[in-house]
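For this section, I looked closely at a protein sequence along with its fold in token form, which I now present.
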Amino acid sequence: MARAAVTEAPFSGIRWGRRFTFWLIGGSVVMIGAILSWHRTEEFLIKDDRFRLAEARDFAGPSPSLTVEGVHYASPAQIRHIFAEDFGRSLYLVPIQKRRQQLLAIDWVEDATVSKVWPDTLKVQIRERAPVAFVHLPPNRRDGMSQFALIDRYGYILRPRVASRFTLPVITGIRETEPIEDRKARVRRVVSMLRSIGPLASQISEIDVNDPNDLIIGEHVDGAVVNLMLGDDNFAERIKNFLANYPEIKNKRPDARTLDLRVDGLITAVGGDGRG
């Protein structure tokens, strides 16, 4: 019996080897068939006219295959330009992640989604940046003229391309050439200050952020503008103290145009030479 067991083992191994070979060949045939089938499907998606994105009816106009939502201040032409090479080609070939990254490079675009709507439409949803202030930029080198733009809470400089009306404070002391993280820190300091003073912000004309730890505001009072050095804390209390004591200050120092409020409970008139 031991001899019979020895002679049957090789045959068992041969049977398993044949089964493995059969399944290997069968699996390879199925895989090759799937690859060929997918290749034919892909070729169909690329070449069939039903999936082709229509080109604009005129050179600069929109394509009927591109739907854009959420745009108010961003440039529609900039958005269309990003998809220019896709028109006339299959929807299947559009690299939607790449197009999304290109949309995010537009100044007004905070976020964007790009979706394929079969058979022949691209849908773009834009979330625009929300400006929190005007920014008075230094004069440019080209013509020496000062510039006004908008800025959002993340420090992005925004330039309106359509006529718009914004009721926002004006920030000075920001440079477009400085790192965006520095701009972001300055803007956040302003937003925090405005939030803390509430209704008192209505009389502020400008906010100087050259030193983010010493905000200087231009306060409208009695038909004049007085610069108030607020420091970096207790903004509301310092402004209230100024308003309560302004009649006396005006009587004693009618020429004072800059007042130092950085010490709580104390108001110091600063002369042109920087001395009280």
Summary: Confidence is low (pLDDT under 50) at residues 272-276. The radius of gyration is 34 Å. Helices lie at 2-47, 76-82, 96-104, 180-197, 235-252. Residues 2-47 form the longest helix (46 residues).
